[in-house]
Amino acid sequence: MAVNMRKVAIVGCGRSGSAVSFGLMQSGLFSEMVLIDSLAGRADRVALDLAYGTSFAKPMKIYAGAYEDLADAGIIILAAGEPMLKTDSRMDFIRKNVNVLESIIPEVAKRNTEAIFLVVTNPVDILTYSALKFIEIPESRIMGIGTILDTGRVKYLLGKKLNVDPRNVHAFVVGEHGKSEVPIWSSARVSGVPLRDFFEMRGYQDPDAFLKEVITEVRAAAGDLSYRRDDTFFGVAMAARRVCEAIVRDEKAVLSVSSLMYGAFDIDGIALSMPAVVGADGVECLVPVEMNEDELDEIRKSAATVKSIVDDVLGEAR
After folding, report:
1. Secondary structure (DSSP) of 19-78
2. Coil, helix or strand at residue 144
3. Which residue among 66, 170, 257, 268 sits deepest, i.e. has the most Cβ atoms within 10 Å of its Cβ?
4. Which of 42, 95, 177, 242 is catalytic?
5. What is the distance between the alpha carbons of residues 200 and 198, in angstroms, rounded to a whole number?
6. What is the CA 44 to chain-centroid distance, rounded?
7. Of 93, 111, 144, which marks where a domain is finished?
8. DSSP structure class, residue 258
9. What is the maximum span of the chain, computed from C-alpha positions, in angstroms?
10. Domain C-terminal end among 125, 144, 163
């Protein structure tokens, strides 16, 4: 069955999935949205709440459905996951969500292997790689929201400090979406002006302390695996919407999504967040961002962190 790129499916209607559904309902990108959740009634409640607002937005068919309704969806967003309990270790939490994904993917694969899959559940790099292992489709059609939100946070904080529109700040956060993620300051620009030159132009002679504060704050937010912070769900929704825009409109946008690595920076066989060209076919290629040796070393350490978790959680499944 041919997929309909004007139809999106969201699997998992918890706080992040619900926020994503609201963001996409407002976007005007889709004419149809189906919501699926394992808890009886939750998808129905979210779908009805959204449907009540369609008179204030663009026409859209919104409904709760079952796996059968995924058959012609052009984009399938995987937002299902277990909450992180106080008694859970980091690895306990990761294993729980890998198990959730492993239970979902075969059901999805029975109905649709032609869609583009977007993972939003944390830990996004681990789950993106897991999805690649659990379904046999081209790797380009499975991606995670990666460090898009982290990059957005950095751009906002820099723009606020420098008193400039954050849309004119060009910088990336890469690596693991988590505490080992890496800001690429060496190639950061403000409308073509090197970041440190722009700081000097604004009267800040030594920005190092501020840049350290920025990445510490962003890493702390990224390291909250449970997505239980009240200020996180809207950001996740906006990041997911941005990826969907790039896909539906075939924008060829450069976004720091999580995708499979094939040897770039000597990193291979894991999913990691790196700038990539994203369009109608998914991830087209990685973008080689200029970085210094210290940054490259930090990226490799971040990759090693992800790989150690993958080896532990998936083991022989790799």
Report:
1. HHHHHHHHH---SEEEEE-SSTTHHHHHHHHHHTTGGGSS--EEEE--GGGGTTEEEEEE
2. strand
3. 257
4. 177
5. 5
6. 25
7. 144
8. E
9. 60
10. 144
Range of the domain at 23: 4-144
- DSSP helix/strand/coil, 85: coil
177 is catalytic: yes
Give burial (CB, 10 Å; 0-12/13-18/19+) of 15: middle
pLDDT tens digits, one per residue of 227-283:
444 446 899 999 999 999 999 999 999 999 999 998 888 899 899 999 999 999 999
Q: How many angstroms separate the CA atoms of 156 and 150, rounded?
A: 10
Cα–Cα dist 65/38, whole Å:
11
Could you read off the pLDDT of 122-169 as tens digits, one per residue? 899 999 999 999 999 999 999 999 999 999 999 999 999 999 999 999
The two three-digit tokens of residue 250, written as one number: 């075939």
Output the pTM of the full model.
0.93
Give residue 81's Cα distance to chain centre: 14
ω into 123 cis (within 30 of 0): yes
Say how far apart CA 174 and CA 303 lie, in whole Å. Answer: 10
Query: 127 and 153: one domain?
Result: no
Q: Residue 170 and residue 29: Cα distance in Å, rounded? A: 26
